[in-house]
Design a protein that fits this description.
The chain is α/β, with parallel strands linked by helices. 15% of the residues lie in helices and 24% in strands. The protein contains 4 helices and 15 strands. Strands 1, 2, 3, 4, 5, 6, 7, 8, 9 and 10 form a 10-stranded mixed sheet that branches. Strands 14-13-12-11-15 form a 5-stranded antiparallel sheet.
């Protein structure tokens, strides 16, 4: 039990609750030093919660929400943090070795000197997260967004996956942005084996929405991400025959949809648009349908 009487009472009441659906609301509780190893904290609320030096080994924090919480030096070895939503949270020198952060959303998180050795970031979105001095040895980051701060003491040996940046590299008193190939080279020159999917500043990245029925050559739709400086804008080619704003990529990065997509070239995107327009005009103008069958049908409906 935690040393703080109010926190101990709240924890005891939760443990003794007969309703198995009750989730733990730890808001504003001082749980520093508490041993919660193996606890089922799925959907827990950690608003302004103090978990400094707490033990959360193998704890289940699936979809837990955190804001202004402190988990400095907390032991989260092997913990499940899948789909957590951590905002303005401190994880300084925390141990997240082998932790599962799949599809997690971390925003303005201070994880300086934290250990993420062999952790899983697949599908995670890290936005404005400090990884200065952090250890990502052997971590997996498939289809992850790593908008993070790095420095020369950040360990990335064995980091694998396909990521999106940009990252910010701290060099003494200065900071510079790394994106695209430059970020990929910086990481891989330090022992990582990653591909950086987002394009350099000022360019456009295209994606095809795919599944078993709609392969890359005949996708269900296409989206694009345009980048200008630090500004990102996402658009989908719609039934209105134009590019229109979409939340598809952002929702995917936050784990809110499970549709798959792959990065494609501008030429592939252009071919999709031409096929879709041809199919659209044949469908809406059957009396004027062209007889040229060399144009393949569009792959589903974009969204």
């Amino acid at each position: 039990m935690p040393a703080d009487p109010a926190a101990a009472a709240a924890l005891l009441a939760w443990c003794e609750a007969t309703d198995t659906e009750t989730t733990f609301d730890a808001s504003q509780l001082d749980l520093s030093g508490a041993d919660l190893s193996g606890a089922d904290l799925a959907l827990a609320t950690l608003f302004d919660t103090d978990l400094t030096d707490a033990k959360l080994v193998d704890a289940d924090l699936y979809r837990a929400q955190s804001a202004d919480a402190v988990l400095d030096r907390a032991d989260l070895t092997g913990a499940s943090l899948a789909k957590v939503d951590f905002r303005d949270t401190q994880l300084r020198s925390a141990d997240l070795t082998r932790a599962d952060l799949g599809s997690a959303a971390l925003w303005k998180v201070d994880a300086r000197s934290a250990s993420f050795r062999h952790a899983v970031f697949d599908g995670a979105a890290l936005q404005e997260v400090s990884l200065l001095g952090a250890d990502l040895t052997g971590a997996s980051a498939r289809n992850a967004t790593l908008n993070v701060a790095l420095d020369e003491s950040t360990v990335v040996t064995g980091l694998t996956g396909e990521i999106r940046g940009p990252a910010r590299l701290s060099e003494g008193d200065t900071e510079r942005e790394l994106a695209g190939l430059e970020l990929e080279l910086w990481l891989n020159s330090r022992g990582a084996s990653v591909s950086v999917l987002n394009s350099p500043i000022g360019t456009v990245t295209y994606y095809a929405r795919v599944d078993d029925e709609f392969p890359r050559e005949r996708p269900a739709g296409i989206v694009r991400r345009r980048r200008a400086g630090k500004s990102l804008s996402d658009e989908a080619f719609t039934r209105n025959l134009r590019w229109e704003p979409t939340e598809y990529l952002r929702r995917y990065e936050l784990g809110h949809n499970e549709d798959d997509h792959v990065e494609i070239t501008e030429e592939e995107a252009t071919r999709f648009i031409l096929r879709f327009k041809a199919k659209f005009h044949r469908t809406n103008n059957p009396d004027h349908a062209v007889s040229d069958t060399s144009v393949p049908p569009a792959g589903g409906q974009p969204g």
